[in-house]
Amino acid sequence: MASEEELFASVDALLNEEPHLPPPAERARLREAAGITQARLATALKTTTQSVKNWENGRSEPKSPRLDAYQRLLNGWAAKYPAPGAVPAAATAPAAPAAPTASEVETADAPQPVDVPGAGPARPATRPAAASRRPAAEKAARPAADPRFPHGPLAVLDGDGSAYGVNGIVLDCPATSVVELVEWTLRESGLGAPRLHRNGKDSDPLIVLTAAAAVKLGLPERLEGHEQRRSLRLPEDHPVVKQVVEAKWRLTQRGFGPWARIYRKVQGRERQCVQLAILSWDALDERSWPGVSEMEPADIARVLGVYAQRVITPRGSTAVSGLELMTALRPPTRAVQDPQTGNWVPGHNPGSLGTEPMDPAPPEATPEHPVVVDSGWSGGFLNEEAYQWVRDVSLLSDEECTLPFAVGLDLNTAFLAAAARLVVGLSAPDHFRAPTFNPKIPGSWLVDLSHVEVDPRLPSPFTPDGTRPTGPAWYQTHTVAYAQELGYNVAPIEAYLRRETGAYLDPWHDRLKTAYVDTLADLGVTKDLSDTEFLAAMERHKDADPAMAAVLAAIKATVKGGIGKLRERPQGKKYKEGERWPALQRPTWRPDIRAAVISKARINMHRKLRNMATMTGLYPLAVLSDCVVYPSPGESPLDFLPYAASGKPQPGGFRLGPTPGLAKLEGVQSMLWAVDLMEQGYNPARHIKGGDAVLDEGE
Q: Per the confidence metrics, is the pTM higher than 0.90?
C-alpha cells in the first residue's frame, strides 16, 4: 500500500493547496474543470479508475491516507475552478507536515470499515422511521457529523430487514446470514463513530439484533444453559459459527455470545470489525438498561444512539464500556518518529497505562492472584470498599427515636465525583520500609490508625463497616491523609508507592459528568432549579421520557461498572487459585486505581457526615455505599439540611442538585420502621436503595 508521503508527493504534482471534501457530483465537476481524467487521477492516488468512479457517483468513499490526499486535491481545485456564481475560496498556504496519529501507524485488531471486494452500492436505501412512541430529542440523539459515518454509530436490525439508526433513519438491510450482515455493515451501511482522541481508534459499527432478526440469520432465539445467559456462547460446531470461520472471519476469545465481535486480521491500516448485540440473549442487562429490550427498535436505536454520542458506542456490558472509555480517552500509544529511520512508529502515550499489563503490589492484589499465591504473601490486603454501616441502636437518643421520618440521601454518582482530579500511579509499585508519609504520592501504606478517635455516632472513616481499626492495616493514600487531616500523627511501617503519577481518569470523569448532567437536563432536572423544584423534578424524571431515563441509568452503571472492572475477579468453575485469568492481561487491570477512587469517595462521605454533625447536630442512622439515612422531623431533606439565613445551602454538608457528588432524595420511610430494622441488624439504607452496596466488577 502506498505511504502517505508518496501519495502527497503525487498530489503535489497537481496541486499545492489544502482540502475540504465536496459532494460526489462536485468532485467530478472539479476534476473535469482541471482537465484531469479519472485514469490519471487514479494513477496519482495509487488506486483504480473504478474507485475514482465510485467516489464521484457516491457509491463509496476513500479511506485514509487516500482520503487526506483526495481532500487536499479537491480543495485546491475548488479554489481554482469555483462553481458558477460561487465566491472563490481564498488561497491558503499548505499546512506544515504533522505527525500522524497513533492509529495511523499502529496495527490493531479492531478495524475501520473498508471496501469489500465485489461490493455493491456503497450506501443502502434509507427511509424515515415509523413514528416512535416518543419524539426523538434532536439535541440528544444527533451524533457529530463525520462523512465516513453518515448514518451514525449503530443500527437495530429487525426481522423484516429494517435497520433502525439514529435520528429516525431506517436502512434496508438485505442480509440473510451473519456473514452477509457483517459485509453489508462494513461496505454499505455507513455506520461507525470517529475516535474520541486523536491517537485512538474509530469505534466499530454496532448492529443490535432483535429476536426476529436473530432467528432470520440462523441464530437461536434464546441461549439456554445452567450458567447466566450472558455467559453462554454458541458451540464451535454451530452452523453460524462455521459459516463465519469458513468466510475467513474471526471471533474474539469471548466466542459467539450476547456481545459478539466479528473481525478479520488487520491488513496495513485497514480495520474490519463489526460488533453484534443480541437482545433476546440478554445483551442489554435490565439493571443497566431498564426497559430497553422491550422497546420498539426505533426507540432502542435512540437510547443506544444517545449513549454512543455522549459516552461511547457500546462494546459489551456497561462495565466493559466504562473500561473501554478509559482507554479510548487515554490511548496507550501515540505516533513517534524513529530517530534512526525517520519512520513514524507507535510509542508510549504519556499519561496512559501503556500497552503491557502490570502486576499489583501484593497487598493491592486479590488472594487468588499469582503475586500472592506464588510469593506466599500473608501480610494482609487493602480493604478500601464502600460503606456498609448502621449505627448501634444503643447510640440513638430519645429525641432521635421520636422523630417520625427516616430520610435517605443518595449522592449523585459519588464515585464519579471522586475520580475528578484524582492522581493515581502510572508505573509499577516500589517497596519502601518506614517511609515518611506523603499525601501527594499514590500507593498503599501499612499504618496503625487505631489511635484515631471518631465520634461513635459516626462510622470510622478507615473501614467499610465503620468499626474502629484494631491495629496496623493497609490503606490507600487518601485514607491515611484523612487521619492527618483529623489532626493525628501517622507513621507508616512500610509502603508500596508509584513514582510516575497522573490524573488518568480526568477525561473519563469529564465526559461521563457531562453525559450525566446533560441527560438529567433532558429529563427536566437542571442546575438552575431551586431545591424544592429539584426534588419535584427528581420525583417525576423517570416518567418524563423512559428512553432518556434508560440512558441515565446506563451512564450510572457505566461509572460503577467501569471502576469495578479495574479489579475484575476470575470467573468460571474451572478456575484454580494462582492461575492467571484473562482480565490480568489488560493494562487496565488496576486494583490500586479502584481502591483510590473508593477511598476518596468514602472519605468525602465521612467529611460531609462530620460537617453535618457540626452544623446541625444530626448523625446518620446508616450509610450504604453512596446513600446516607438521617432521622428527620419531616419527609423531605429540606426539613433537616443546613441552610444559611439567606436561604442558600451551607457549604461542607450535603447539598441538593443534579451535579455528581451532590445529593438527591432517595426515599422516605417511617423512623420506627428504620429503628426496627436496626435492632434486627439490618441497614436501613439497603432497604431504601435496594442493596446497591458494592461496585460491580462486571462480566
A: no
